[in-house]
Amino acid sequence: MITVALIVALTLLAGLAVMQVLLIAGVPLGSIAWGGRHRVLPSRLRWAAVVALGLYTGFAALLLSRAGVLPGSTLPVIMVLTWILFGYCVLSIVPNVISRSRNERIVQVPVSTLLSASVLIIALGPTG
Questions:
Q1: CA–CA separation, 89 vs 52, rounded Å?
Q2: What's the pLDDT tens digit per position in 77-99?
Q3: Whole domain around residue 43: which residue ranges?
Q4: For the whole model, what pTM was predicted?
Q5: Spatial CA neighbour of 117 closest among 90, 97, 80
Q6: Fewer CB within 10 Å: C terminus or N terminus of the chain?
């Protein structure tokens, strides 16, 4: 179960990363991200997308560790950070649900929900 959750989470994070790279490059996908207000992201949101890429990388490394692919799966810091990531993922559902952009709601609500569920499964993994 954890393996499937990890594959789903990493696939979603990779998809989100590709989306951010496209947004940074000026591809007009803004209706599905960052509030959906801009077809092409302005400079400040492109920088936010760069930060998001770094976060996704960290999230992936954390999940790989917690799932036992990388070392440290039962270290208290890894377990706590995984639960914090779960909370972050759950909280990310809210702005996507209330977004004024229909496209963002259609794309990001299922992504956020599925990512949250995947992180939960990984967080509930073996503790020792």
A1: 13
A2: 999 999 999 999 999 999 999 99
A3: 2-123
A4: 0.94
A5: 90
A6: C
